[in-house]
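sorry for the late reply, my laptop died twice this morning and i had to redo everyting from scratch. anyway the thing you sent over, i finally got around to it. pasting the sequence first so we're on the same page, its 138 residues, then the predicted structure underneath. double check i copied it right bc i was rushing
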Amino acid sequence: MINTTIDRSKGEMILKYPDLCHRKDEVFKFYSNQQAFNIWSIRQRVFIKDVLAKFMKQRQYALAMHMTSRQDIALRRIDFVLRSYYEKDSLKLLVKKVIMLESDILEIAPSPRSRFYEHYVTVIVCLFNWCKWYSKQF
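ok and here's the structure:
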């Protein structure tokens, strides 16, 4: 997940993304703890949505020729959650909805022989583990 470093002397928050996500690190200025938390929360939501949307699109493409009805339903559920619960709701609610998608993600997961399996294990599985941890914390 996102590694956050806060430099209070400069009033900066540095967000470092996992290497396999191919995202540049971001630096944000903040003036209060609440503002830093709000920025962090927004960036987490954006990250979760982007990672799952890209994973969903890749799996749609990979499964296009031999998709089962269960896989199609799983892809539609993931798409519905990403479209419905991303912008307007809190990080807490998005995390709960993502946790509920675990069986759907497992349904469309790449096989261990796939070249996308490493990305699945290092990014998607870690994302779910972080979501489970976050839901227990708050």
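Residues 33-63 form the longest helix (31 residues).
thats about all i looked at so far, will dig more tmrw
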